[in-house]
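Exam revision sheet. Question 4 asks you to relate a sequence to its structure. Input first:
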Amino acid sequence: MILKTLGWKKINVTIQFLVTETQLTQNMFYALDVAKFEQRIQQIKAESIEVMSWTDTSIKGKINVTKPDMLFFSIPFDNGWRVEIDGESVPVSKLGGFIGVNVEHGQHIVELHYKPKGFNLGVVISIFSLFTFGLLSFLDLVKKKTLKIKWDKGI
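Answer key, structure tokens:
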């Protein structure tokens, strides 16, 4: 089989299968230019974010960007994520299920904050529930003391 899809190079490839029942349904082959691949990896590493601090719900870091680009985070996208670049809120994009933000040329401080949908409502409901429980417990205590006083007085 002769492959002509490598551009200027023609190479002969012989494929032998250990299992005789194996068949190729698509004659598509790919090659990787390792030198270009490693060069691109170094470019990506040079423009990666340097994490300065993080918690369960936030990440803060700095980055030096050589040209305006989309900053990709391998964090699953969720509407609860909020991103600030240099203290200004920026829109969060969905990149194939992950988080991305547009970033301009230069050095920037990037902060990501996460608050789950419904968090504020959950806090309000919890506070209301605790207040209601406290009130009912207090009323029950008052009722028991009142009954005890009446019992002691023989009423």
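Marking note for examiners. The longest helix spans residues 119-153.
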